[in-house]
Design brief:
- Chains A, B: It comes from Fodinibius sediminis.
- The structure is a homodimer of 333-residue chains.
- By secondary structure, chain A is an alpha/beta fold.
- Chain A has 2 domains: 154 residues, Rossmann fold; 150 residues, Dihydrodipicolinate Reductase, domain 2.
- Helices cover 29% and strands 27% of the residues of chain A.
- Chain A contains 10 helices and 13 strands.
- A 7-stranded parallel beta sheet of chain A has the order 3-2-1-4-5-6-13, with helices on both faces. A 6-stranded mixed beta sheet of chain A has the order 8-9-10-7-11-12.
- In chain A, helix 5 links the parallel strand 5 and strand 6.
- The first copy, chain A, is globular, with a radius of gyration of 20 Å.
- The first copy, chain A, starts with a strand and ends in a 16-residue tail after the last strand.
- At the A-B interface, helix 6, helix 9, strand 12 and helix 10 of A face helix 6, helix 9, strand 12 and helix 10 of B.
Chain lengths: 333, 333
């Protein structure tokens, strides 16, 4: 039995909370969210489940005091800079951490100073911190690294994730710009808020797994433009408006493109799939037709990773350094 | 730079030796094979490469003396019982071990006494021992376990490996009974020599990853019968003769079949593929059309695993307990 505290009770956090109810050996003991609308409400009721007897707290100390929590599950920010103080507070409180923060999935190249500080505070407290999720954290980085294990040589890795965003949570649909005009899209893109976060981190994680020293990493982002009315999302998208994003992450050695990550998420997209192509010895392509629903899978891997995190050494770890999380309704170690 | 000694210089061992020549940071320092035909010959020439200045030795001591080897790569026996004395000798000599021995991939349920003895001798010597390969060791056990990481619930796992054995090494084609009459096949089956080894081990590895307590594990084996003359293998197979094997490994909880592994390897098989189906939340199917060539991939993963083995704790480990091997032409840790 492991006791966890949920930090962040947005749509993803609520999904994680619901999932814990199906897990024999994970027991929720507290929840934190800064939103005054949520403060004091019962966590179960807030998540659309039965009463759980756990009030959502606005700050950490009161929510964990005397409850013997082992692990904090953190689904708050995508930004490493914003999440750092939370992680430091949790580590100080001797809590192991599993977080869906995209920039935490592989921060060693992009933000090494913050990564080193998080690593240090975790080591000092003897706890482990992992950033995970379905993407970044699995489909476009960890899984290609796993697949590479059977290769004698690799020239290039290409990963494609195409998904119909109709089935994703509303904040996700908003995040990819569904329903924006070209002008709105371009403005939101400029602000940096309009994108799937993590492609650069995923490129770096693959490069690390393969011991490739990249000379540069590039990211591009463009709108997917609706060719006709799309009504399958949380709101109607008119012809000419953006239905989502198309992004590329690319890693180069010299002028050679060694890693290509292609991410396309749009409301009404027809052929969702996840594909890994390895050009090497052997060359092969692995495909999941229909693709993986990111909301379900991110909530799942976050809880699945707890057992592996508890077995890992202390410090800031990535998916490359922990044992296979694997699904486990209960812990068997 | 890691120094390795190759134990067993059959077709698979020779492939591993050739592969080391393409790896910057793996350096062969010795080779052992009990075959008097090979003793004293130069390892490079025996493997069809250039002269390496390494004579194949019939026994371990002289081949490693004063050469500072870190790791032994062992491709000798499929049987745990037969390989145990070799592993003990290597561990005593303070060598870490990566082996393609099928029964070593997950011996904890099938042969726990031997597994415990190997674990103890490795711990006592402070070395790590891993059984790996493409199957068992990757496609039908480790990879499904990895895939399960994104699931909130799993009801059933089915893995299918169908392959055209024409492209495999001759001992593999012989091992699956290609070219035998029905009577010869049934006799060889009775002797226990005619089969892909490892399905039971793979079932147990998946069960362990998912914390499922199985009530029973079953294996079946039948011939694939050639419907017409097949000439793509190492020898012609006439109509009515066996062209290969069809095997199932099944794991049950109560009467419920939770794990189904379907292995079919035959000369002339038309649609090679590797498929993982997970029935759960989410349900999905991952397919590699064309499948993975087992000889290439087994030699590759064996060398790729060295770096992860050197980072692991001492003792007998399985793929579930080490970090992702991943392809790496050089070590970056």
């Amino acid at each position: 039995m492991k006791k966890i505290v949920q930090i962040g009770v947005g749509p993803l956090g609520q999904k994680i909370v619901k999932n814990t109810l199906q897990r024999e050996e994970i027991h929720l003991v507290g929840a934190v969210d800064p939103d005054p609308e949520k403060a004091g409400k019962d966590l179960g009721e807030l998540c659309g489940c039965t009463h759980m007897g756990i009030p959502v707290s606005r700050e950490l100390t009161s929510s964990i005091k005397g409850r013997g929590a082992d692990v904090a599950v953190v689904s708050t920010f995508s930004s490493l800079e914003r999440i750092e103080p939370q992680l430091a507070e949790l580590a100080d409180a001797k809590l192991n951490i599993v977080s869906t923060c995209e920039e935490l999935s592989y921060p060693w190249q992009t933000q090494p100073d913050i990564a080193q500080r998080i690593d240090k505070v975790c080591r000092d407290s003897g706890v482990t911190c992992l950033g995970t999720g379905v993407n970044p954290g699995f489909l476009m980085d960890y899984l290609p690294a796993v697949m590479s294990s059977i290769c004698q040589d690799i020239e290039q890795i290409k990963v494609t994730r195409v998904q119909d965003a109709s089935i994703r949570r509303i904040p996700f649909q908003r995040k990819i710009g569904a329903g924006l005009t070209a002008k709105q899209f371009s403005q939101r893109k400029k602000n940096g808020h309009l994108r799937h976060i993590g492609l650069t981190e995923s490129v770096h994680m693959i490069a690390r797994a393969l011991c490739w020293r990249l000379d540069r990493v590039e990211e591009t982002l463009d709108p997917v433009v609706a060719a006709r009315l799309v009504s399958s999302g949380y709101k109607d998208i008119r012809q000419g408006q953006a239905s989502g994003v198309e992004q590329y992450g690319r890693g180069y050695v010299g002028e050679e493109e060694k890693i290509t990550l292609h991410f396309r998420a749009a409301v009404g997209e027809e052929k969702s799939h996840d594909k890994i192509e390895i050009v090497g010895t052997p060359s092969f392509t692995s495909v999941i037709e229909g693709g993986i629903n990111g909301d379900i899978a991110t909530a799942a891997i976050t809880l699945n990773a707890i057992s592996a995190v508890l077995r890992a050494e202390s410090g800031l770890k990535t998916m490359l350094e922990i044992p296979v999380p694997s699904f486990s309704g209960r812990f068997c170690v």
